[in-house]
Design a protein that fits this description.
binds aspartic acid, binds adenosine-5'-diphosphate, single chain, alpha/beta, 4-stranded mixed β-sheet, 424 residues, 8-stranded mixed β-sheet, binds magnesium ion, 20 strands, Carbamate kinase
Length: 424
């Protein structure tokens, strides 16, 4: 008998019929003899709709209230799912993040889990029930206030619970058959990846492949939780995220390139005419960091000899754009730049593969593929196992397809299926 944590994303529980379908799947696992703990996301696009609603009430909703609002989404789905399971003759009990013992820091909107004490969940399982846990939420250690874990956070709840309960596997059920070499919504010829290492999955998630939340992969790697990403709409085997070789003992297949990820959620800030003297970059990034913003790529232009001034550009999540711009503007006099440009019409493409560090020519091939497709590159950054480029947002899809083809990632077999979801 195994202990399985199953997580169902929003598109898998989008309406009453979907909830009943998922309930059936859960009872089948339970009747097969396994203990099952379920983590569930809010129905369909509920979280986005609640955010829209808050925006209609006020342009700057207090973050504490925002978290209370958003956690309501998962409460709706968890209780409905428990009812649907009970209706099939299997006992089920739902629990909020707080009841499930998910303790976080107090950063509203993107809280980090600092401890999980799932005694109530364990007790429910020991009594023979299926425990349903609201994903994406916790409670602060200090004040007992409700927090959310950031978009896609139910993935992290699931892995954290799997680690705390010592589960055999964490299954992430979504609307595609696994992790593909690119987003199947953009590249229908993308190939399903059978096994992927934590490091590569981490880079894919960090580069925008939202099929798994970044923190969930960090957590899984740290605690060695095997994650099986698969569809709730089919019975196909999905993608196993693990560093363990497969049963035959064969080493993990290590292609040069694992996949292409894209990200539409970033923006670019260019600081114009910064005095090119020591300490200015440090000052700029202190100011940005002080506003709580995580930046990504940074480029400093060659300074113009006659003026001794230069431009510095960086990318950041567009949702942090207002905070970073306000902080920099406030410090304009002491930094001494002339103006700021803000551009959120950018897209980021990343090529990921652990094998690329030992293969020269990967960047050259990437740049050639983009140039053949007539796509201009605005910024570049690299790590040992990733190359990222910034393009215009409206060229991003073409860029992803061109690069996917150039690296021979297209499948010659069937097309990837997207079973549900709005892609929002
Ligand atoms: P859920 O609601 O189940 O959490 P998400 O929308 O968060 O689902 O994640 C699934 C989506 O991730 C897919 O529908 C797909 O569009 C997108 N995606 C992006 N990159 C990839 C990839 N490389 N492989 C699979 N799916 C991807
Ligand atoms: N409902 C939350 C979101 O939409 C959490 C999740 O789905 O994982 O981001
Ligand atoms: Mg998700």
């Amino acid at each position: 008998m195994a202990l399985i944590v199953q997580k169902y994303g929003g598109s898998s529980v989008a309406d009453a019929d979907s909830i009943k379908r998922v309930a059936k799947r859960i009872t089948e696992a339970k009747r097969a003899g396994d203990d099952v703990v379920v983590v569930v996301s809010a129905m369909g696009d509920t979280t986005d709709e609640l955010i829209d609603l808050a925006q209609q009430v006020t342009p700057l909703p207090p973050q504490r209230e925002m978290d209370i609002l958003l956690t309501a989404g998962e409460r709706i789905s968890m209780s409905l799912l428990a009812m649907a399971i009970s209706n099939l003759g299997v006992e089920a009990q739902s629990f909020t993040g707080q009841q499930a013992g998910v303790i976080t820091d107090d950063v509203h909107g993107r809280a980090r889990i600092i401890d999980v004490s799932p005694s109530r969940i364990q007790a429910a399982v020991d009594s023979g029930a299926v425990a349903i846990v609201a994903g994406f939420q916790g409670v602060t250690q200090r004040t007992n206030d409700v927090t959310t874990l950031g978009r896609g956070g139910s993935d992290t709840t699931a892995v954290a619970l799997a680690a705390a309960l010592g589960a055999d596997v964490c299954e992430i059920y979504t609307d595609v058959d696994g992790v593909f070499t690119a987003d199947p919504r953009i590249v229908p010829s993308a190939r399903k990846i059978d096994r992927i290492s934590y490091d590569e999955m981490l880079e894919m998630a960090a580069s925008g492949a939202k099929v798994l939340m970044l923190r969930c992969v960090e957590y899984a790697r740290r605690y060695g939780v095997p994650v099986h990403v698969r569809s709730s709409f089919s019975t196909r085997t999905g993608t196993l995220v693990t560093d363990t070789p497969d049963e035959g003992g064969a080493p993990m297949e290590q292609p040069i390139i694992a996949g292409v990820a894209h990200d539409r959620s970033e923006a670019k800030i260019t600081i114009v005419d910064v005095p090119d003297v020591p300490g200015k970059a440090a000052r700029i990034f202190q100011v940005v960091a002080g506003s709580g913003v995580n930046l990504d790529m940074i480029v400093q232009n060659v300074s113009v000899a006659s003026t001794g001034r230069t431009d510095i550009s960086f990318t950041l999540p567009a949702s942090d754009g207002a905070a970073a711009t306000a902080a920099l503007t406030e410090h304009q006099p002491d930094i001494g730049f002339t103006s700021l440009q803000y551009d959120d019409m950018i897209g980021k493409l990343s090529l990921i593969g652990a094998g690329m560090k030992s293969h020269p020519g990967v960047s050259a091939k990437l740049f050639a593929a983009l140039s053949d497709a007539g796509i201009n590159i605005e910024m570049i950054s690299t790590s040992e196992i990733r190359i990222s480029v910034v393009t215009r947002a409206d060229q991003l899809d073409d860029a992803v397809r061109a690069v996917h083809t150039a690296f021979d990632l297209d499948s010659s077999e069937e097309q990837a299926v997207v079973y549900g979801g709005t892609g929002r």
